[in-house]
Structure formats: C-alpha cells, structure tokens
Amino acid sequence: MKISNNSVVIMHYAVSDSEGTLIDSSYDHKPMAIIQSTGYLIPGLENALLDHQAGDKFEVAVECKQAYGERHDEYVQTVPKELLQGVEELVVGTQLRASTDDGEQTVIVIDINDKEVTVDGNHPLSGLDLSFEVEILEVREATEEELAHGHIHAEGESCGGH
Question: 43: part of which helix (H) or strand (E)?
C-alpha cells in the first residue's frame, strides 16, 4: 500500500542540519507512528512521504520554509526580570508560555542578567535547512476511531475516546 492522505505510517527517521550534524533520530528507540496529512510532521517531510510504501528507504532535503520557517529577529525580546517573578527556576534554556498579540506562545530563555531576561519565540530549528533519512516500516489505512481521535492506536487498544 502506498502512503496517501489518512494512511497510518510507521517509520524510522534521522534528521540532520545542513552541515550534517545529527539533530534527532528514532533508530535507537521506537519508530514514529503518524497519520499522514494531519499536520503532525513538518510540511516538507509530510509531502515527501506521499506515494512511498513499506520497505522504502530514502533521503529528503527540506528547506527551512517547509520545515520550521525562517528566523524572525522580532521574536527575540528582552524584558525586565521582575516580570518573571514567580518563575521557579529561571535559567538559560527554560521554556515559558508568553501572552502575545497572536495568543499564547512558547518562548525560550536565551540570556539572563541582573535586571533583564532575553527570550526567543522562534522554534529552535527555525532558519535551518534539514536533511532526513527515512525508512518506511509499515503503511496501513487508519481506522475510523484513529481518524476521529487524530492519533494512532496500538493494535487492540483504545484510548478511551481521547
């Protein structure tokens, strides 16, 4: 069966940046299971899966625009440290939820000094062209329940409606 919209795809992947530095891989643990065309994957990878089938191994280069988008300098802001009073552990790398004009957004603390904290609202992989190695392990039709819930159910399992 070839991958099409609403197919269940079970796959291994390895993703690297344009310099070949490994960012993440499923090969050392459980493969990824997704429902194709539900927006779980970045658009460039999701599009590359179409028409492949179990047993296929391939590489795909995904430009940043089809991955996590371009970096935006305006998403980096410095705020007075007192605005973050009550945050238990405030260190570089801490992820926080921030209220913005566009709603709630995750930001990452990238710098702290005595008076100010700098946060970055860009995705950590924004601005990067990515390279994927993919191995398709299984392709099947999604069940009605999986489509209704938007995620995969292991064989014989139900998620209790969630």
Answer: helix 43-49
Query: Taking 50 as the threshold, does the pLDDT of residue 5 lie above it?
Result: yes
Residues 115 and 145 in one domain: no
pTM metric for this prediction: 0.82
CB 55, CB 10: distance < 8 Å: no
Residue ranges making up the domain that contains 32: 7-68+126-149
Do 21 and 101 belong to one domain? no
CA 45 to chain centre: 11
- Cβ count within 10 A of residue 15: 21
Nearest CA among 136, 134, 132, 83 for reference residue 109: 83
Contact (Cβ atoms closer than 8 angstroms) between residue 116 and residue 79: yes
C-alpha neighbours within 13 Å on the C-beta side of residue 7:
21
